[in-house]
Amino acid sequence: MTDSRPVVTRFAPSPTGYLHIGGARTALFNWLYARGRGGKFLLRIEDTDRARSTPEATEAILQGLEWLGLDWDGTPVSQFEGRARHAEVAREMLANGSAYKCFSTAEEIESFREKAKAEGRSTLFLSPWRDADPASLPDAPHVIRLKAPRTGETVVHDAVQGAVTFRNDQLDDMVLLRSDGTPTYMLAVVVDDHDMGVTHVIRGDDHLTNAARQIQIYQAMGWEIPVFAHIPLIHGEDGKKLSKRHGAVGLHEFAAMGYPAAAMRNYLARLGWSHGDDELFDDAQAREWFDLAGIGKAPARLDFKKLEHVSGWYIARMDDAELMAEIAAYRTATGAAQLDDAQSARLAAVLPALKAKAKTLPALLEQAHFALISRPVAVEEKAAAALDTVSRGILKELTAAVQHASWGRDALEAAAKAIAESHGLGLGKVAAPIRAALAGRSSTPSVFDMMMALGRDETLARLQDQAG
């Protein structure tokens, strides 16, 4: 289970669609393990399925990793481009006796399986060419198969699952090279991991059976076997395997819902891994703490309430510049136009007053609506009810009172209170028309926070627009 080599992990997605949340977590675990040990985190695009692999999907995966903040070392490797190397290894195995040429046709294999099924025997195909004399082989189309051991056991010493044993008589002589000369996925993965120097293969536990078959290739070539760590899959809140019926499953969907990337890293790290009772932590702590021993064997459950809690914790603690960058990324993810300089300045001014209450970025922007709109402010029907003749007169008085006053929160609040008292009103009654004038809404942040964010000139202009 130990490996003295410098740590090298990899993330190897297939570019057949968006980056799934489960794939994003796998990438994160590999990134954390490598970065926490001064190792390398490599990226391989497993694009051998030419019918389904697309450049657009590859780009979506790269963008997803970049948004999540996972940097990789070197240039992403294309598995398809390594097909000549994969075929070369298959021929090496042929030469060392750990593989053989099989000339059985698809019809012959199907006939074998039907007969075995009828006789109540294992339908695992036993090729008649396994021990054929090489000198007597025909010059005909063939595949190259692994000459897998027929007896004994193959044990996967897994850092998460423990020792998992597979009977060799349940593992077939899998095809390594197809009759058209193209390598199979199973061969390509092993060759790539070996050539890339991967020391730790951290991936979903749906690959656990693959590990047993891949170990046989490592052994046939006399290569060092990496540390395997097969992590449980992510389930929905109902305990069933995560799928589109649960709502968001693509990383891009979470970005578009307005969860900051830093919060997603924290939340995904805790999906199936734990460090004592720590729920909330920063990147430095995650890199220092993350280890394979902390990964549980049971499937993790996606919990949107917990994700919102983590998201709110991060938004409240982010410095304003980082939060502005997250907002820009969110607007990109949703296709919204970026804020102009005036909007950005007003938003930055109000962030300290708003970010402690927001769970997501759209919730934060909703609170900051007043800072993003331009004059003349459109007043919603409910807010307009606060703009009667008396209220408009109060707005005129307030405009005159603060026009030359010191522009500070205390001074503005004192001016508003004085006007309220002069009319025998509570501050709330005076605040309602101010909200309508500044934001066009009846529910807003503190009117004094809005005035400070908008600044003297913009505040006075909006008050005068509604004062008439």
UniProtKB/TrEMBL annotation:
GO MF annotation, one: ATP binding
E.C. no: 6.1.1.17
Sequence motif 'HIGH' region, location on chain: 13-23
Compartments, as annotated in UniProt: Cytoplasm
Keyword set, alphabetical order: Aminoacyl-tRNA synthetase, ATP-binding, Cytoplasm, Ligase, Nucleotide-binding, Protein biosynthesis
Chain positions recorded as ATP binding sites: 244
Top-level EC class: ligase
Superkingdom of the organism of origin: Bacteria
Reaction catalysis annotation: tRNA(Glu) + L-glutamate + ATP = L-glutamyl-tRNA(Glu) + AMP + diphosphate
One of the GO biological process terms: glutamyl-tRNA aminoacylation
Keyword Ligase: yes
Subunit structure: Monomer.
Matches recorded under NCBIfam families: gltX_bact
Entry's family note: Belongs to the class-I aminoacyl-tRNA synthetase family. Glutamate--tRNA ligase type 1 subfamily.
Function noted in UniProt: Catalyzes the attachment of glutamate to tRNA(Glu) in a two-step reaction: glutamate is first activated by ATP to form Glu-AMP and then transferred to the acceptor end of tRNA(Glu).
Protein name: Glutamate--tRNA ligase
Gene name linked to the record: gltX
